[in-house]
């Protein structure tokens, strides 16, 4: 096995995914940039089982292992963050959001697990959101208390639960699994008012993707680990 480290980032054609892919490339990783638009990287729509199977096959034959998986691809199909949509979000919006943000990440990770197990010390990063925190949503004093786009929030809560369950499954291995909140980031999703650049937003993601052997697993972090978030 060579010392080359292979990283797959989903939704790497723009926003936080693109910034994370570039940062890992700068650190010497061979980055496979997953994109729904095949021209912009590896053709990978995480809601398409055939794309997932093809990616696993291609990575398997080219490298035989995967050192880093960043489940970054995500959608926010509700019109805004500042309203409680629980009473009127459509089942279609709910399913579309869960498909991309939760089922896609689970299906891709399952397909790549044998390759992640083949790496000496793989890292899996689930790009979540503080809006997935049940603890903060239930706290009237929390700054995000008023923000309740239900489909988006529940998709990230489910993703966080995946982090906990997968970290438990892999607890006897060298693989580490964590959730990241990038902060509020100026992307198509975060909007123009957001204070952080995509490069700043990618920092916690990259920190978790490059953790040392004594780093955490099964956690939910922001600010490069200076803050642990409540589930
Ligand atoms: N921005 C923020 O403030 C913020 C805060 C907390 C968490 N996040 C999370 O950070 C992640 C990245 O968001 P962003 O802010 O960078 O948003 P963005 O600029 O809207 O980028 C979203 C990325 O996900 C891709 N994507 C969407 N559905 C996909 C699918 N089915 N298969 C593959 N790729 C898909 C998009 O691809 P296309 O170009 O093909 O649409 C795009 O590359 C998301 O998981 C988001 O929930 C963002």
Query: CATH class, please?
Result: Alpha Beta
Largest sheet: 8 strands, mixed
The whole-angstrom Rg is 17 Å
- The succession of helices and strands, N to C, reads EHEEHEHEHHEHEE
Q: How many strands appear in the DSSP assignment?
A: 8
Do you know the CATH topology? Rossmann fold
- Poorly predicted tracts of residues: none
Shape descriptor reads: globular
The ligands found in this model are: NADP nicotinamide-adenine-dinucleotide phosphate
What does the average pLDDT come to? 96
CATH superfamily: NAD(P)-binding Rossmann-like Domain
Please supply descriptive tags for the structure shown above:
binds NADP nicotinamide-adenine-dinucleotide phosphate; 6 helices; 231 residues; globular; Rossmann fold; alpha/beta
Please, could you describe this protein's structure?
This protein is of the alpha/beta class. It has a single domain, classed as NAD(P)-binding Rossmann-like Domain (Rossmann fold), CATH 3.40.50.720. Helix content is 39%, strand content 14%. The protein contains six helices and eight strands, in the order E-H-E-E-H-E-H-E-H-H-E-H-E-E. The protein has helices at 15-26, 49-63, 91-118, 134-137, 150-169, 198-209; strands spanning 6-9, 30-35, 42-43, 68-71, 123-127, 176-180, 219-222, 227-228. The chain has an eight-stranded mixed beta sheet, with helices on both faces. Strand 1 (6-9), helix 1 (15-26) and strand 2 (30-35) form a beta-alpha-beta unit. Helix 1 packs across helix 6. The N and C termini lie far apart (38 Å). 44% of the residues are buried.
